[in-house]
Fold:
Amino acid sequence: MSSHAPNQARVIPLRPVAATREPLWRDVVGDVLRRERTAQRRTLKDVAEAARISMPYLSEIERGRKEASSEVLAAAARSLGLGLADVLSLAQGEIARRTPSRTAPARAPMGEVRLAA
Structure:
């Protein structure tokens, strides 16, 4: 039996959430493109020309400095022999690996309300 009076709210402090920086999409996509390009032993110039985008722009994308449009990402992917879905899937897997798993907050039993203070 609980030690608090009926209809009296109990305050249960929430666990502080660790301040972890989640990876940025543009960083992960750039890493994926660079990894695929270097695995094929291809130069920035070669891939940029095949994708019909400028070499400096591709470099900026690979370094996570620019957020590329889906059209540019698709062109870069095609130039590497991949589809856009392949690049997105690889990036999603990389984000999952880089992001620490978070446990779901504890749920209150039925009929009990928990307030954060």
User: Anything to note?
Assistant: The mean pLDDT is 85. The chain is about 50% helix and 0% strand. The first helix runs from residue 25 to 39. Residues 42 and 80 are 9 Å apart (CA to CA).
